[in-house]
Amino acid sequence: MIASVFLPLAFISLIVQLVFQILIRSGLKKIESNSDNNLTGPRAPLSVIIVARNEKGNLKKYLPSVLASEYEFFELVLVDDYSTDNTKAIMDEFAAKDKRVIVVGNKGKLKGKKGALTTGVQAATHDNLVFTDADCYVTSEWLTHFALAYESGSDFVIGHGAYDRGRSWFSEFYSFNAHKSAMLYFASAAYSMPYMCVGRSMGYKKSLFLSSNGFTDHANIESGSDDLFLQTVKGSAKIALNPQAISFSKAPSSIKRWIIQRRRHLGAGRYYPFKVLALIFAYEISNLLIPLVYLFLLFTKSDHLPLLTLLLIVRIVLFRSNTQVFSSLVKSNDDISQLWWSEYPMSWLNALISVNIGLMKKEAWTTRR
Predict the structure, then answer these.
(1) What HEC string does 107-159 produce?
(2) I want to staple 243 with a disulfide (CB 3.0 to 4.6 A). Which of 22, 131, 160, 359 is the partner?
(3) Domain holding 134: CATH number?
(4) 129 lies in the same domain as 218
């Protein structure tokens, strides 16, 4: 009786996953065919905006990577979000040494990071904005990719926020999970259904922000200054997908930090359009069910095991290949796709963390690391 339920469930889950993997590959190929590797030509002036609260150590460590960009036509707007340490003093030191640096205090009416970002947007001199975080470092070509996207007529640019692999299995798993997540939302955006981007590497025009009333549509939601704003403007914005515009952050070093990060993502994710939520749910649930139903049928010695095994192998091969294709699009020196085997442990850990999210104490946005 139970087997009669598990068998169709196994086939449905595997077929759903195979369809998703084929669609992901097609989406990544769309991005690959539209990518422009020519880093020469006309240049658009940029305003890079970084919001920081109590980030003196990270500013000293990571700001030089932004200022050392091979792309020269930019200003750097640093927004002090009510820091209680020496963050403002560190910002002023950078401004004193480099005339491209502008320092402002948070004057936004909205609470949290959205108010500070609004202050940064208003202080920006140029229409082409680029965003990252104080705890990120970037490649020398990072700004060049944004400039090229703006020059091509785009007014919203989705970059890639990666995590360093670190030295522990924990940080490696987390960095691969971010790689997988980016692969999914880039592929979805290639089908004109963008649902996610990350504030660690993204950009949009100041005029787009002002004409859409900024974060007004989701001002009461603490998170979502990146993906919920994307939801607000996706119908009117020309969106560029550039996984080579990559920033790097240190992966969370503990389960607690991971839970905080996951809570922020779930907090904004529940406001996604129903169609997007349904697709994400179908992908995650079918993926979680596969090992459970397969193991049950394995122990019951089902006659359909050979076919199920073949489908599972094909699914794994397609997934591994997709992660490799995305790595080639990112062009990172660290091929995180080698950790493809960690997908199922990560999926289950994420699911368990998500179940317990509601029991955890609310945290401020700056505790996400």
Answers:
(1) CCCCCCHHHHHHHHHHHCCCCEEEECCCCEEECCCHHHHHHHHHHCCCCEEEE
(2) 160
(3) 3.90.550.10
(4) yes
pTM exceeding 0.85: yes
Taking each helix axis from N to C end, the angle separating 169-190 and 2-34, rounded to the nearest 10 degrees, works out to 70
Mean pLDDT over all residues of the chain?
Answer: 88
Do 228 and 285 have their domain in common? no
Tell me the DSSP string of 8-72: HHHHHHHHHHHHHHHHHHHHHHHHHHH------S----EEEEEEESS-HHHHHHHHHHHHT-S--
Alpha carbons 18 and 282: distance in angstroms, whole number: 12
Contact 293, 11 (CB under 8 A): no
Domain containing residue 50:
38-178+191-253
Residue 264 pLDDT > 80 = no
DSSP H or E segment with residue 161: strand 156-163
Residue 367 token pair: 């505790």
Strand partners, 249: 136, 163
Q: Are 159 and 247 in contact (CB under 8 A)?
A: yes
Q: 183 lies in a domain?
A: no
Question: First CA to last CA across the chain, in angstroms?
Answer: 47
> Is residue 8 one of the residues assigned to a domain?
yes
**Residue 185 falls inside a structural domain:** no
Beta pairing class for 136-138 and 239-249: antiparallel
Would residue 263 count as lying in a domain? no
Q: Are residues 315 and 166 in the same domain?
A: no
Same-domain check for residues 107 and 235: yes
Strand partners, 76: 48, 101
The per-residue pLDDT for range 3-19, each reduced to its tens digit, is: 677 788 889 999 999 99
Residue 57's pLDDT band (cuts 50, 70, 90):
very high
Among 120-124, 162-166, 210-214, 219-223, which stretch is predicted with the lowest mean pLDDT?
219-223
Same domain, 153 and 240: yes
Contact of 133 with 60, CB cutoff 8 Å? no
Per-residue pLDDT reduced to its tens digit, 285-344: 999 888 888 888 888 877 888 999 999 999 999 999 999 999 999 987 667 888 888 887
Structural domains counted in the chain:
2
The yes-or-no verdict on residue 204 having pLDDT over 50 is yes
